[in-house]
């Protein structure tokens, strides 16, 4: 009987599986299966990218739908070092990852029952949410692709003059450089460049604005409505207490998912809908 290999979720005290020869585990979430080596030329790590991900969809004749997950992207291919006769089957490889993730409290989101070469998993580790795809190629090799949920860092920020020009022309301006953790209303430190620009505008212009929070349509409507108001309030408090803006200039409001600027049918559209706006009173 073939030896059954187990992929063990990496933890601080044990991040590299025995039998490793290449000097790298290849993927930060999982240790390497025994008698495998990571293809160093296949390793990809990007701060922000997309992963095509399959989810169950009873309305689709195929039984699934393709969605895009966005965040920190990581991928690595692992090559089996033995002979073809010794190579584990797709089922054996995928079942090991399924077991490893579910034993750590994760979920199996979708299994490809037709080609039987892919499994889609979800897990939480150190407070982060990961979407994982494992692909087995039928000859003993496998590839792990994953997304860690995170917002894209907004490197291009409107300055005070550009904010003024947009408000004068359109009456509102959208900001994507104000960050929150999922389902939270605490402004993250990465938001500082955008908040600095907003504060500079408000300090140099005697105008009163609504600070409006927007969400996508994922989840409960009432929760999203409350969350959008809580986030707008958090932004307002930050502007007043940390950046010296007059409280009389900023009024927090939340509209939840009621004012989308794009379709909520894909992840790209949802990302555009999650925003904070200034609207002239």
Structural class: alpha+beta
- How many structural domains can be distinguished in the coordinates? 2
Which sequence of SSEs, written as H and E, runs from N to C? EEEHEEEEHEHEHEHE
DSSP strand count? 11
Main features:
5 helices, 60s Ribosomal Protein L30, Chain: A, 281 residues, Protein Transport Mog1p, Chain A, alpha+beta, seven-stranded antiparallel sheet, four-stranded mixed sheet, elongated
Write a brief structural summary.
The chain is an alpha+beta fold and 281 residues long. The chain has five helices and eleven strands, in the order βββαββββαβαβαβαβ. The chain is elongated.
What does it look like?
With 281 residues, the protein is an alpha+beta fold. The protein has two domains: 36-149, Protein Transport Mog1p, Chain A; 160-280, OmpA-like domain (60s Ribosomal Protein L30, Chain: A), CATH 3.30.1330. It has five helices and eleven strands, in the order E-E-E-H-E-E-E-E-H-E-H-E-H-E-H-E. The chain has helices at residues 90-103, 160-170, 192-204, 221-243, 267-273, and strands at 36-38, 44-56, 64-80, 107-111, 118-125, 128-136, 142-149, 172-175, 209-214, 250-254, 275-280. Strands 1, 2, 3, 4, 5, 6 and 7 form a seven-stranded antiparallel β-sheet that branches. A hairpin with a 7-residue loop joins strand 2 and strand 3. It is elongated and about 75 Å long. Residues 265-281 have a biased composition (Basic and acidic residues). It is found in: Cell outer membrane. Keywords: Cell outer membrane, Membrane.
């Amino acid at each position: 009987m073939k030896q059954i290999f187990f992929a063990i979720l990496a933890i601080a005290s044990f991040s590299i599986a025995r039998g490793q020869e290449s000097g790298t585990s290849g993927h930060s979430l999982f240790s390497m299966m025994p008698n495998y080596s990571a293809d160093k030329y296949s390793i990809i790590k990007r701060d922000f990218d997309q992963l095509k991900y399959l989810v169950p969809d009873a309305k689709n004749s195929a039984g699934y739908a393709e969605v895009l997950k966005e965040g920190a992207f990581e991928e690595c291919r692992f090559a089996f070092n033995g002979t073809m006769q010794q190579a584990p089957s797709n089922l054996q490889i995928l079942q090991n990852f399924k077991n490893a993730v579910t034993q750590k409290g994760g979920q199996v989101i979708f299994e490809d029952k037709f080609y039987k070469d892919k499994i889609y998993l979800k897990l939480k580790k150190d407070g982060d949410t990961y979407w994982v795809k494992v692909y087995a190629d039928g000859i003993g090799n496998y590839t792990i692709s994953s997304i860690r949920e995170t917002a894209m860092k907004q490197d291009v920020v409107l300055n005070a003059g550009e904010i003024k020009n947009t408000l004068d022309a359109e009456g509102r301006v959208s900001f994507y450089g104000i960050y929150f953790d999922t389902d939270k209303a605490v402004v993250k430190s990465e938001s500082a460049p955008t908040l600095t620009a907003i504060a500079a505008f408000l300090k140099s212009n005697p105008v009163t604005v609504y600070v409006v929070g927007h969400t996508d349509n994922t989840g409960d409507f009432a929760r999203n409505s409350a969350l959008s108001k809580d986030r707008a309030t958090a932004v307002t408090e930050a502007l007043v207490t940390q950046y010296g803006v007059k409280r009389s200039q900023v009024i927090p409001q939340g509209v939840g998912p009621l004012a989308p600027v794009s379709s909520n049918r894909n992840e790209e559209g949802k990302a555009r809908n999650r925003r904070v706006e200034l609207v002239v009173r």
